[in-house]
Design brief:
By secondary structure, this protein is mainly beta. The protein has two helices and 15 strands.
């Protein structure tokens, strides 16, 4: 498995302005769902991969336009971004999802969605009251994986004069599958749990979906975060 890494632009900004401390802060790692694609611009903070709208007074489903439109509030402010996998608590099964967001309207009032396979969904037209929309691009907990709990240990930041950069290293990270498999997962998000906005530091790309079979271990070693 060849692992590559991409820093988020917001993570670079927060490091440059002192908003995160890679040596001292609590940094968490999340395994992402199959199909997830990292965007260094829009995946800036944790709520861009895990968020909720709260209760929306009126949410209108439109099958012709494949849209979910709210009467107030903002999906943008809530943290929804293109590519999120979302569900709703609609009583109508056709409107529950999961869906993928293909467009977040600039007004923040509407989402255009597809199926998880990328096709047009079959929504049931109409307005519904007090609906919550939730996005979650982390894999589900279970079988040895506990969602949003794994914390890096052994962090150290060193000056690298040979390559003219600084570098954060940490201990190896292991998940042990038990009672079933973990995954598939294409990569992992690192975010700073101590920062003011849960800054996403970056993404580790596993070069394709990885699945951890029952009774097996999945270990990430030699993790480094560099400033260049």
């Amino acid at each position: 498995m060849a692992v590559s890494a991409t820093l988020s632009n917001h993570g670079k900004y927060m490091k440059a302005t002192g908003g995160i401390d890679l040596a001292a802060d609590s940094i968490k790692i999340l395994l992402m769902r199959s199909g997830f694609t990292f965007n260094k611009d829009t995946h800036a903070i944790k709520k861009n991969v895990k968020t909720t709208s709260g209760s929306i007074g009126t949410l209108t489903f439109d099958n012709t336009g494949n849209t979910l439109t709210r009467n107030s509030g903002s999906f943008i402010t809530d943290g929804f971004v293109v590519g999120n996998q979302i569900t709703t608590d609609s009583v109508n099964s056709a409107n529950q999802g999961p869906f993928l967001i293909s467009v977040v309207d600039g007004s923040g009032l509407a989402l255009t969605v597809t199926t998880t396979a990328g096709g047009d969904p079959t929504l049931t037209d109409g307005a519904e009251s007090n609906i919550t929309v939730t996005s979650n691009d982390e894999i589900a907990g279970g079988y040895g994986y506990s969602a949003d709990t794994k914390v890096l240990t052994g962090q150290a930041v060193a000056e690298d004069d040979t390559n003219d950069r600084s570098e954060m290293t940490c201990d190896s990270i292991t998940w042990n599958a038990s009672g079933g498999s973990i995954g598939p997962t294409p990569g992992a998000i690192l975010y700073d749990d101590d920062s003011s906005d849960d800054t996403i530091i970056g993404y580790l790309n596993f070069d394709g979906d990885q699945t951890v079979p029952d009774s097996s271990a999945f270990t990430l070693s030699n993790i480094k975060v560099r400033d260049a």
